[in-house]
Amino acid sequence: MTGFPSQFENAVGLVLQHEGGFVQHPSDPGGATNFGITHATLARARGHPVSVDDVRNLTREGAIAIYRRLYWDAVRAEELPPGLDLAVFDLAVHSGPLRAVRLLQAVLGVEADGIVGPVTLAAARRADVPQAIGRLTSMRLRFLRRLATWPVFGRGWQRRVLGTEREALRLASPSSTD
After folding, report:
1. Which residue from 8, 13, 32, 62 has the fewest beta carbons nearer than 10 Å?
2. How many CB atoms sit inside 10 A of residue 94's CB?
3. Is residue 177 part of a domain?
4. Has residue 1 been placed in a domain?
5. Is residue 162 in a domain?
């Protein structure tokens, strides 16, 4: 144990800066959320139906465990280059792991099958990471702008996506000491 945060700890900390506490916004198709974990995601993580009160009572530690298993591990972020790991993870949290992987694969020029396997990982390691982060950000914003809820949430989403891009580019920089 070095005392330094892991890649995941850094990334989930940044995600949680964007994902607040309990919210049940009438325009949010995800319904009740807590720490960004939706009602449906909590039910999937627990393997049984949950109530709005279950969402409300979700702890930060519980949310982090869900982020690890259903998002970070699902997109194999630990195996992606620094910076790209954060960009893909935040996209997975915000728009789903399958969409995150398919957009990553499109950016990398490999078959967009939604599975992070040896071909995707090899392409990620060969990629110009800052360029890949920029392209992923552009594709992500194009997708979000097409959503019916963009007029309600778009300003915050754009701030989040561009903030994630800035931090991802910092992490991808050869001078980054993280």
Report:
1. 13
2. 21
3. no
4. no
5. yes
Q: What is the pLDDT of residues 137-162, one digit of tens each?
A: 999 999 999 999 999 999 999 999 99
- Please give, one letter per residue, the 3-state secondary structure of the chain: CCCCCCHHHHHHHHHHHHCCCCECCCCCCCCCEECCEEHHHHHHHHCCCCCHHHHHCCCHHHHHHHHHHHHHCCCCHHHCCCCHHHHHHHHHHHHCHHHHHHHHHHHHCCCCCCCCCHHHHHHHHHCCHHHHHHHHHHHHHHHHHCCCCHHHHHHHHHHHHHHHHHHHHHHHCCCCCC
pLDDT at 131: 98
- Note whether 140 and 134 are within 8 A (CB): no
Which of 34, 153, 159 lies closest to 90 in space, CA to CA? 159
Give the CATH number of the domain where residue 61 resides: 1.20.141.10
Q: How many domains does the chain have?
A: 1
> Domain containing 148: what range?
7-172
